[in-house]
Structure formats: C-alpha cells, structure tokens
C-alpha cells in the first residue's frame, strides 16, 4: 500500500518486482489513490490494482470502511504499508492480515506486527532502499538498480497519442527530441524560469534537427507556456524548434519521455517516471542529494545530476529557506545544464550515472 504521490509510488515499484521474485506464485495486490494509479496500471507483476478515491469528511470514512471490508474479504497473509500515513496505517491494520509491516512511527506502530525503523529524511541514502527496508521481515535484505529498477509500463493508447502529436508537429525519426520538465511540487525544487529559457534557447539554437518540448504539472502550465514563449521570441526565425505539443496526462508523459533523446527535469515525480525508461536523464538537484534522488535504474543508461555542490544548508527539510534565496537552485547556471544535456545527446552507448558538482 502506497496511496500517493506519483514519484513516491514510482519509487515503490522495485518492491513489487522483489516480492514477485521472492513469491512467484503469490497474489500481489496494490492499493493506491487515482492520481498515481497510472504508474501501476499494466504492471505485469501485480495480480490486482485497487484504486481508492481520495475523499474528505464523512465520505472518506465511508470509503475507508468499504475498503477495509474489501481487504478483510481478501484474506491477505501480508500487508505492507509503504506510506506510513494515518490512512494507510489504519487500512493496513484493518485488513486483518496476520503479518502487517510498516515503519516505526509514533502513534501508529501498534497497528503493525513488524515495525521497521525508517532512515531520517536527510540521510544520504536512496529512497528506494528506504522502501526496501520494509521487505526485511520477508527475507529480502538487499536491492540493486540493475536487477530492481523502477517500472512503469508504456500504454498502447498513450503511445498512439504521442506518435500522432509528434507527426502533426512535423517531428520525425531524424529529429532529436529534447524534453524539458519545468515544474516542481514546491519552490525548493523549482529552478528559475529565466534559467529554463536560457537552457531551451541554448539547446534549440545549437542544432537545426533538435526540437525542444516543454512539459509541466497542472499547477505550472502557465510557467511552461511563458518559458516557451520567451524562448521562441529569443530564437526568432528558429522558433519552430520549440513546438507546442499540448498537455499530456501521466500515461502520455511516460510515452513522450520514451521517445525523447534526453529528458531534463528537477527532483520531481516526472523525473522518477523518466527513470523507468532508457532515455538519458539530466536531473537538477537543489536541496536533495544525489545519493537520495539520483535516477534509480540500470546504470548502463545515461544519468547525470547537476547540483550546486556543498552548502552548509544542504540538504534541508524544505520547509524554510534559511538563506532566503534558494541558493541551492539559483546557484546552478544554465550553462552547466546545457553541457550535461550535450553529453547526454552525444552518448551513443549506455553510460554510467554520474554527478557533476
């Protein structure tokens, strides 16, 4: 059980892979809320996907009671709470499974039969390993990105939509598609818009066969549009190198990333989605460390993190910027991201992941 968020659910998919390998004949059911459900839809290692609405007030109580009854009827042997929130902890307990595994959290540990210590938030340890710790009571004690990579299957309908939009925009196999994700869930992970504009202009102007496409989350569509318009204005007669493909849902984004020559984005859910592909990735890291947030996948595939380097305030809890200027992000110049993207585009063979500070 991991109810949300998109990136966090993607980071649990190695757990699904590990469980299927450890228990090849088991029935594996995953409980998730609608926003992140596309990550798991079509996962061949799952037997069942339960999508539970996210409601409030009395509607939430009724939904949780209904879901708890359904879980009881399933007679599960093991329930694993990969989330640790109040709702997921209660549902894990209410499932009635004789083995219930979760993190040691004040006020909720009693709901589990096996409580596992969670690494502190700022520990330089990858999030996937933190999730994997919950499998120790079942005999799975180690994971590796080569054998336990992130997964999100491409959906045929989404692939067809992406192919149609690319064709309509005149983007064919001879073009190098550069996908730039400009949004983030909070200001601690949002690179300045003017840097994004400089990045887009620099990459688009360097090669007439490049097409730079911008994408964003629902809350940042306006920001992505503004960056694209500013880039087209600066590019002038080369403005067609920054086409508008429209908005994509999560399934469409996964398919679009799979067709890109390089993906560029911050420490966000879409970057974790990109990690489920073999597309080269350039990741911009602000307050988080590469040891925790580097793309988790087979190290044969190119991945490079660009960050500002050592700061006394980095990493942080992302609640208040002590210096007040978000220097962990504003200190990253567009030039360095362009250089990393050029390395990704030049990679003709799988490459080892690296961090440039």
Describe the structure.
This protein is α/β, with parallel strands linked by helices and 357 residues long. The chain has two domains: 6-138, Rossmann fold; 156-356, Rossmann fold (3-Layer(aba) Sandwich), CATH 3.40.50. The protein is 36% helix and 13% strand. It has 14 helices and eleven strands. The longest helix has 18 residues, at 57-74. Mean pLDDT is 93; it is low at 349-357.
Features:
357 residues; alpha/beta; Rossmann fold; 2 domains; six-stranded parallel sheet; three-stranded parallel sheet; 14 helices; disordered C terminus
CATH architecture of the largest domain: 3-Layer(aba) Sandwich
Structural class: alpha/beta
Oligomer: single chain
Q: Give the tally of structural domains.
A: 2
Largest beta sheet: strand ordering? 7-6-8-9-10-11
Q: Give helix % range.
A: 25-40%
Largest sheet: 6 strands, parallel
Q: Compute the number of strand runs.
A: 11
Q: Output the helix-strand order.
A: HHEHEHEHEEHHEHEHHEHEHEHHE
Low-confidence stretches: 349-357
The CATH top-level class label of the largest domain: Alpha Beta
Summarize model confidence as the mean pLDDT: 93
- DSSP helical segment count: 14
Reported by name, the CATH topology of the largest domain is: Rossmann fold
Morphology call = globular
């Amino acid at each position: 059980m991991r109810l949300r968020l998109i990136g966090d659910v993607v980071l649990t998919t190695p757990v699904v892979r590990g469980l299927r390998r450890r228990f090849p004949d088991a029935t594996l059911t995953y409980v998730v809320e609608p926003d992140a459900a596309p990550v798991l839809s079509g996962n061949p290692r799952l037997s069942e996907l339960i999508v539970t609405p996210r409601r409030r007030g009395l509607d939430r109580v009724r939904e949780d009671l209904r879901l708890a009854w359904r879980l009881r009827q399933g007679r599960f042997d093991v329930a694993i709470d990969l989330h640790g929130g109040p709702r997921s902890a209660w549902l894990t307990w209410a499932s009635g499974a004789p083995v219930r595994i979760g993190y040691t959290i004040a006020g909720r540990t009693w709901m589990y039969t096996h409580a596992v210590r969670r690494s502190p938030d700022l520990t330089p340890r990858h999030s996937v390993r933190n999730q994997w710790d919950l499998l120790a009571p079942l005999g799975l004690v180690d994971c590796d990105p080569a054998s336990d990579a992130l997964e999100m299957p491409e959906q045929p309908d989404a692939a067809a939509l992406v192919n149609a939009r690319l064709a309509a925009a005149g983007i064919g196999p001879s073009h190098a598609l550069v996908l730039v994700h400009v949004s983030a869930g909070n200001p601690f992970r949002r690179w300045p818009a003017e840097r994004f504009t400089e990045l887009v202009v620099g990459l688009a102007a360097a090669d007439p066969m490049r097409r730079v496409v911008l994408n964003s989350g629902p809350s940042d569509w306006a920001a992505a549009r503004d960056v694209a318009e500013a880039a087209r204005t600066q590019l002038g007669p080369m403005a067609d190198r920054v086409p508008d493909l429209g908005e994509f849902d999560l399934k469409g984004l996964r398919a679009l990333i799979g067709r890109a020559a390089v993906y560029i984005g911050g420490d966000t859910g879409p970057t974790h989605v990109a990690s489920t592909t073999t597309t080269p990735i350039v990741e911009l890291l602000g307050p988080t460390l590469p040891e925790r947030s580097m793309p988790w996948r087979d190290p044969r595939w190119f991945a490079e993190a660009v960050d500002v380097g050592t700061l006394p305030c980095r990493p942080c809890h992302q609640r208040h910027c002590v210096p007040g200027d978000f220097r962990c992000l504003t200190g990253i110049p567009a030039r360095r991201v362009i250089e990393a993207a050029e390395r990704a585009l030049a990679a003709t063979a799988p490459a080892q992941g690296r961090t440039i500070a």
